[in-house]
Design brief:
InterPro entries: AceGlu_kinase-like_sf, Ald_DH/histidinol_DH, Ald_DH_C, Ald_DH_N, Aldehyde_DH_dom, Asp/Glu/Uridylate_kinase, G-glutamylP_reductase_CS, G5K_ProBA. The chain has about 775 residues and is an alpha/beta fold. It is about 35% helix and about 15% strand. It contains 23 helices and 24 strands. Strands 3-4-2-1-5-7-8-6 form an eight-stranded mixed beta sheet, sandwiched between helices. It has a six-stranded parallel beta sheet with strand order 17-18-16-15-19-20, sandwiched between helices. α15 links the parallel β11 and β12. The protein is globular, with a radius of gyration of 33 Å. The N terminus is likely disordered.
Length: about 775
């Protein structure tokens, strides 16, 4: 229907980011998934009365209207065909008529009384049709003024039921709308409330092929189908469709609604203003869906989202309720979250030996099913060839030695998990027969998002099992075959105690940003991947803590008293052993006294042999006649065979440099002076600080944690390589004998003791 040449670029006036995409689609079937909504060409946006009007129902919500007009303009200027179905004429007219009545009453009263003081005036009940007649022109003038700011022309169309049921009128309406769209004009459609009959029951909405125009929900649905629209966006004052009336204790937002699901929904009362309630919206939406138009019902009044709700929907983000005719083959991510929660709670109630048994069984499966795993991994590598950079391909690759190392790490986790959940950390006697305990418990449900590395899946799964946490896993599509078989093996191991659903692999088209909004289901997000992925997740997570680091800018300071024999080995291992790792060396700080010494020459020669590209820091460059390329930023994570070298005058200057340009990940000092080393270790504020050791030791397996879910540079809860201990929190258990607080008051019979009691010794075998 649309040629690519017809697509125009987004205008520079908009501050709403949106990528222009070719829009070409044959109308007939609605979109099956949210991710397809970005291909919508023709869109109807229905603005409910609660969206357009103020809270006092008298006058318009100008701020909301302005943001909606901007979003519609953005989409229109991308080459889409936008139509508005708007309420608001009655509210606008009500405001105008009230003002006129008050003005006329005050004038009459002043003339009759001859006094300046006015008596309290009663405003008569205003008839809706009269309000609509008074408000329609003003509402349209307001829309015209707003759209003019974005160089867009708007046109008003008032309709009644007859315009759709009379064939000639219907053809006229259709022709007018098509002509307006052809001329790049936004039609603004409303029922002609000045002449419509009073509202009737919605009985005809029960029909399959009949829908009457008696409110703007039915008008929008009828218009959408008549105009073969790709998408209908219905904005109301609630987040979407709930399974129970919004605000009730058990109400849950329905992400995707399918025809036939009406029986599972209990509808509440209608909106504070307007003709239709949620039941009318659902019936109208299903009618439009049957006609081939996709529908989303969302909140257009919330101040935090109304400024981008329309563009978010078109981008495919999880906003409101999406109506779809295609049910997914597997569970939704919300159902997976509930299964992970339930399974995690069952995991936590198992005996430590039972959790260890599951992990041992998974370790055995990794070696027993090695051929099947490597075959699946081979498919991933073949599909990724030419699409992924060499470092990412290396991360994606599995081997027999990697699987063997994984199995060893899992057995370490199993051994260390014996005394993890339920361990007593503190005991206090509050008073006689009143004892308090602080014990370790699982965090709840973890969401781990990882790129490229399929070996991450069994590691993280084992740690979740050992700590009794439910787990949602979202892997990159480049490792889909490997992730699928590793997840099946994980569920097979869990099945020996009947809790296979505790670990879930998200295979739906769920975007990472949407997963980060599931704050009612997820307790902690752990990203494993590039610094860009981590930053995106930290930005997207709303109300869910994120454990991780956005950058791994690791430093090594070579002191003036460093050993010649140690330096080159440590630099080579830290930089060259695995340059793509987050714990690889990125900046080498060298004491000024070492310049032009044999030690310095050895370092440079070794880096040249290893083909490491050197970037000179500002001070280092000033010492050289012909220097390497000067570094663009001292805060750079290269993730490749590149290294920044900078010169410092002292250990204190090295520490100051690390604090200014580092990422609090891993930093190292190389020196034979113990006093200098201890000063460095105590004063560098990073998650891992080493003396005469490679940065690459910053790893859960190398620390003896068995494995890690990631490395955290956070200062709250867990820091550094996060193993089993970092996936636990605590709760308080108080055991009493009919104790009440009033007994401890000034005139009470009891006194607080607050005695520390011995804690059971931890099993360290």
């Amino acid at each position: 229907r649309v040629q690519p040449s017809a697509i125009r670029h987004v205008r520079s006036w908009s501050n709403i980011p949106f990528i222009t995409v070719p829009l070409s689609r044959t109308h007939g079937k609605s979109f099956a998934h949210r991710s397809e909504l970005k291909h919508a060409k023709r869109i109807v946006v229905k603005l409910g009365s609660a969206v357009v009007t103020r809270g006092d129902e008298c006058g318009l919500a100008l701020g909301r209207l302005a943001s909606i007009v901007e979003q519609v303009s953005v989409l229109q200027n991308q080459g889409r065909e936008m139509m508005l179905v708007t309420s608001g004429a009655v509210a606008f007219g009500k405001q105008r008529l009230r003002h006129e009545i008050l003005l006329s009453q005050s004038v009459r009263q002043a003339l009759h009384s001859g006094q300046n003081q006015l008596k309290e005036m009663a405003i008569p009940v205003l008839e809706a049709r009269a309000c609509a007649a008074a408000g329609q022109s003003g509402l349209m003038a307001l829309y015209e003024a707003m759209f003019t700011q974005y160089s867009i022309c708007a046109a008003q169309i008032l309709v009644t039921n007859l315009d759709f049921h009379d064939e000639q009128k219907r053809r006229n309406l259709n022709g007018t709308l098509h002509e307006l769209l052809r001329m790049n004009i936004v039609p603004i459609v409303n029922t002609n409330d000045a002449v419509v009959p009073p509202a009737e029951p919605n009985s005809d909405l029960q029909g399959v092929n009949v829908i009457s125009v008696k409110d703007n929900d039915s008008l929008a649905a009828r218009l959408a189908v008549e105009m073969k629209t790709d998408l209908l966006i219905v904005l109301s004052d609630v987040e979407g469709l709930f399974d129970n009336p919004p605000g009730s204790d058990d109400a849950k937002l329905i992400d995707i609604f399918y025809p036939g699901d009406q029986q599972s929904v209990t509808f509440g009362t209608k909106s504070r203003v307007g003709m239709g309630g949620m039941e009318a919206k659902v019936k109208a939406a299903l009618w439009a869906l049957q006609g081939g138009t996709s529908v989303v019902i969302a909140n257009g009044t919330h101040p935090k989202v109304s400024g981008h709700v329309i563009t978010d929907i078109v981008e495919g983000k999880k906003v409101g309720t999406f109506f779809s005719e295609v049910k997914p083959a597997g569970p939704t991510v919300e159902q997976q979250g509930e299964m992970a929660r339930s399974g995690g709670r069952m995991l936590a109630t198992l005996e430590p030996e039972q959790r260890a048994e599951i992990i041992h069984h998974l370790a055995d499966l990794l070696t027993d099913q090695r051929d099947e795993i490597l075959l699946a991994n081979k498919k991933d590598l073949e599909e990724a060839e030419g699409r992924l950079a060499a470092p990412l391909l290396k991360r994606l690759s599995l081997s027999t030695s990697k699987l063997n190392s994984l199995a060893i790490g899992l057995r370490q986790i199993a051994a260390s998990s014996q005394d993890s959940v339920g361990r007593v950390l503190r005991r206090t006697r509050i008073a006689k027969d009143l004892e308090l305990e602080q014990v370790t418990v699982p965090i709840g449900v973890l969401l781990v998002i990882f790129e490229s590395r399929p070996d991450c899946l069994p590691q993280v799964a084992a740690l979740a099992i050992a700590s009794g946490n439910g787990l949602l896993l979202k892997g990159g599509k480049e490792a889909s075959h490997s992730n699928r078989i590793l997840h099946l093996l994980t569920q097979e191991a869990l099945s020996i105690h009947g809790i296979k659903e505790a670990v879930q692999l998200v295979n739906t088209r769920e975007e990472v940003e949407d997963l980060c909004r599931l704050d009612k289901m997820i307790d902690l997000i752990i990203p494993r991947g590039s610094s860009q992925l981590v930053r995106n997740i930290q930005k997207a997570a709303k109300g869910i803590p994120v454990m991780g680091h956005s950058e791994g800018i690791c430093h090594m300071y070579v002191d003036s008293e460093a050993s010649v024999d140690k330096v080159t080995r440590l630099v080579r291992d830290s930089k060259c052993e695995y340059p793509a790792a987050c714990n690889a060396l990125e900046t080498l700080l060298i004491h000024r006294d070492l310049l032009r010494t044999p030690l310095f020459d050895q370092i440079i020669d070794m880096l040249r042999v290893e083909q490491v590209k050197i970037h000179a820091g500002p001070k280092f460059a000033s010492y050289l006649t012909f220097s390497p390329s000067e570094v663009k930023s001292l805060r750079t994570e290269y993730g490749d065979l590149e290294l920044c070298i900078e010169v410092v005058d002292s250990v204190q200057e090295a520490i100051d440099h690390i604090h200014k340009y580092g990422s609090s990940h891993t930093d190292v000092i190389v020196t034979e002076n113990e006093k200098t080393a201890e000063f460095f270790l105590q004063h560098v504020d990073s998650a891992c600080v080493f003396w005469n050791a490679s940065t690459r030791f910053s790893d859960g397996y190398r620390f003896g944690l068995g494995a890690e879910v990631g490395i955290s540079t956070s200062r709250i809860h867990a820091r550094g390589p996060v193993g089993l201990e970092g996936l636990l929190t605590t709760k308080w258990l108080l055991r009493g004998q009919d104790h009440v607080v009033s007994d401890f008051s000034e005139h009470g019979s009891l006194k607080y003791l607050h005695e520390n009691l011995p804690v059971p010794q931890r099993n360290t075998n």
